[in-house]
Amino acid sequence: MRTFDLSPLYRTAIGFDRLAQLFDDVQRGDGQTSYPPYNIELVSEDKYRITMAIAGFDRSEIEIETERDQLKITGRKQKDETKRTFLHRGIATRDFEHRFQLADHVKVVGARLDNGLLNIELVREVPEALKPRKIEIGGDNVQLLEREAA
């Protein structure tokens, strides 16, 4: 794996330390497994969906929480007290914890469990003050400045 030196970024940019930390985390790999399998889907311009295959888990065994810019999904399987003999066990029901890094202004707006698929809906809501806006160019100010200079 190739490593990148991000020190030039620290010398010339202010406030990008979070971005550099993300690159460091990706390079190191956080040890997350691919279990359970999941999809990340762009539903529309500012809407996303994470779909996670969690067959065998009940709603009460799943916990979804957000903290700052991170989404954490945890599955804790309750102990099955009945003695069962499997001839083949292909459905994994082991505990898991998955973390997703959320971009600025991305919020979780809902979650549902249907047919063993956990769907988490996300939306990017950029505050009005941060959206681009057009600035009109007026001619009156130019005339005023010319009169003051004369």
From TrEMBL:
Tell me what this protein is called.
Molecular chaperone IbpA
Under InterPro entries, the record lists: A-crystallin/Hsp20_dom, ACD_IbpA/B, HSP20-like_chaperone
Q: Which UniProt keywords apply?
A: Stress response
Q: Which Pfam families match?
A: HSP20 (PF00011)
Natural source organism: Noviherbaspirillum humi
Give yes or no: UniProt keyword RNA-binding. Answer: no
Gene3D superfamilies documented for this protein: 2.60.40.790
Q: Which family does it belong to?
A: Belongs to the small heat shock protein (HSP20) family.
Source organism superkingdom: Bacteria
Q: Which PANTHER family match?
A: PTHR47062, SMALL HEAT SHOCK PROTEIN IBPA (PTHR47062:SF1)
